[in-house]
User: Fold these one by one.
Assistant:
Number 1:
Amino acid sequence: MKFQTERPASWQSCGSCGNEVVETDPLPRCNLCQGLLEVRHRPPDVSSAELVRRFTERRGGPPGATASGVWRFREVVLPSAESVVSHPEGNTPLLHRVALDRWSGVDHLLLKHEGYNPTGSFKDRGMTVGVTQALRVGARAVACASTGNTSASLAAYAAQAGIPALVLVPHEGVALGKLAQTLAYGARTLLVRGDFDQCLRLVEQATTDLGVYLLNSINPFRIEGQKTILLELLQQLSWEPPNWIVFPAGNLGNTAAFGKALREAREWGLIPRVPRLAAVQAEGAAPFARSFAEGFSQRYRVKAETLATAIKIGDPASYERAMAAILETNGVVLSVSDTEILEAKAAIDAAGVGCEPASAASLAGLRRLVQRGAIGPGESVVAILTGHILKDPGLLLNYHQVMEPPPAGANRPIEIEPTLAALERVLGGPNSGGG
Ligand code: F0G
């Protein structure tokens, strides 16, 4: 169907065949061709200057929905939503650390740290919109497959909304903090004897058959929320876009969301030009990077393997729209090894910033792009850190306490007797035996 007459404020449209359905249609895929749906908005009925004025006025405002770094942008996220399930979320900082300029090779690197969200990852931005929409369509339960962050976020927002949540996660490899959060917030948690790609296929079937509302990033309302990572970033930069935005990529929901945010922001006069996107995958989970290297002539599916478990995904669901995002922004896709990810993470952690392993892929990728000459040292770059350092304590303790030989960044703890002499020995004091 196509809307012929006056368009509603928002509707959904199929990215593959152009079929249009109403905003409140709960199915995640097009009912004609099974393509992924996208939310479309009528251009805001106020000027870009007025939009910027409203976004600025709401920033840091009193508690309430507009205090959210997602709902502050509601005219371009979900204008028709009247009551929203908001923590609030967003309002994440832009950080600058000289040590990380040096490490990555650019003169002035900014880090947008999405780990500062309420459940510790960017997923909260998509989930506040997704769970709001679930209530609007009268869903009786919500569900997702996850490598851990989506499930933690879904569990928290479903708990707030008072709606049951079902999550499917791989039985092995979900980082400790994420599994613990998911259980604590009260989601019904299924440990599936399979990988993320199998979890996603299974949950998609189940939600179609059981009428449960699916909240993976194939859900277009999640994408609307995740656009605000960039809207907020652009606002923090006074709507002056950087040259590059570098970020980790797995299921490609963020890549799709970033492409849409930039397309709309330019169409609606918020920015004069679009930055280039650089999506970074882990070498063992890099089907998108492989397609990019071959000019997107073919889509690949791989059996994923990486210690950055958040992006251990072999068959990314948002392939098509992510490809559009890369092509439209003259972007690049690359992959980095687990060793490089660990090195980047150690640098980010040692700068006092900290992030989870997958997030560090962004800096590892940036360093490669600088070394390769694809990004000049004087270009303005923002790297997105997607998750909090405490998401994956298991990997951290292994890195610092267990790995043999100790990696360069390892900070081994030292066990001592409860005596001053023992302490002095360690610190190289007078009783340290000549140290
Ligand atoms: N970084 C982190 C910390 C993530 O949790 C994810 C995805 C990504 C990057 C990649 O983002 O999928 O949009 O390309 N985590 C999902 C999950 C898959 O289930 O939590 P993407």
Number 2:
Amino acid sequence: MRVAFVAAEAAPFAKAGGLADVIAALPKALAALGLEVAVFLPRYRPIPAHLPERLRFRVDLGPRSYEVCLLQGVLPKSSVPVYFLDQPELYDRPGIYGEGDQDYPDNLRRFAFLSKAAVEAARELAWVPDIFHVHDWHTALLPLYLRAAGLPAKTVLTIHNLAFQGWFPLAAWAELGLAEEALALAGQGEWRCALRAGILAADALTTVSPSYAQEILADGLGLDDVLRARASDLVGILNGIDTEEWDPQRDPYLWAPFSAQDLEGKARNREALLRELGLRGEGPLVAMVGRLTEQKGLDLLVAGLARLLSLGVSLVVLGTGEARYAQALREGEARWPDRLRALLAYTEAWAHRLLAGADFLLMPSRFEPCGLTQLYALRYGTLPVVRATGGLRDTVRDVDLGGNGFVFEDYSPEAMLAALGRAVRLWREHPQALAAIRRRAMAEDHSWAGPAQAYLCVYARVLSR
Ligand code: ADP
Ligand code: GLC
């Protein structure tokens, strides 16, 4: 079976969030099952332009015609080819989606182009896949261009985050070379929605956890009618993690390697982290890693910050995002210099160090389609403290129920602080029990092997229709 992944992000080439981790890892897991897989990605500015050139061809998009050069690379530590669509006018820019907090105004055109050009590239390569697997609104229009091109492939659309839907004014849609019927799938009004079109046109739909699948059928954020219409074609498949990339025994970013059998190294990472960050260590060290947005529960954190620190923990937050949250964290840091550190940057190395060296990971998300950081944390014996939503609900069970972390239901600072309070008590009063839970968490299997099988079933079902 041949599968083409088409997406806006893939680590390590272009990453804004978990989507990039998925596109870097799932194709490898599918290849390990014997599938022939390739990834199509724009050549953004940081991606080298001197990669081997496979093809040059032209793609028309509405009134414009573009020359595209197809460069060939490979997903690291694999033989999965990555085809970079080199079109400087659209992609040779500093950002993936925009700069600062401004999206590029031509994003609809940029990602419609990616969708259409990937179909054309497959044809030009004479490598027509059985399945085009597309991701989020960015490539949700691919099924429309595929139909127009008349290629026999099927399509699977994965929704990583329903909050991003790709709404654009009709004037922008008019320039994409889509037929009237195709355009109608994006809605009727003056503003139309790329994800809506994809939900209607793809052969199958998936999202990134079973709970999130249920949540979006209950509240479709304005896309309720089309999601419910396609409910029988939607499945939730939990994300996995790349267990080579996130391996506490072989992680080059850490101060010391460790494993479930030898937690000594974890303690050394904790000490180094406290020292490097200048934080007090007589209580537990709590970490937060992620985008500073409402989705990730930053409202709760900011509202509960003083009470959280009064539990006697030290807190380190690694993240970039909205200025109001960054500002609140900066102010907190000035007020509690030996208790709170805000690393307001995007750094892979510190993400690994925090997830390895902290005692607990705080993830009080308002909503969370899957979430990867809690899975990385579990693999590093850092117990997650999470709100029960989406993929967090599906991956973290409360220690009171024999589970691997601390779970709270209400989206309130009080509920968050109660869960964190239980974690702190366990740390203080029952260190042996805590170590046993850490070891159990580290032994859980969150690899991509299982999820890859589930995707294979989806592909097979679509092809058998
Ligand atoms: P989302 O995709 O909603 O942002 P996920 O938990 O699925 O959330 O994935 C986030 C990914 O981005 C993880 O790999 C996480 O380690 C990484 N990440 C987020 N913020 C940062 C940061 N400031 N520095 C380094 N890595 C980060
Ligand atoms: C989205 C979601 C996140 C998920 C990631 C990868 O960014 O916000 O929960 O883990 O996609 O699927």
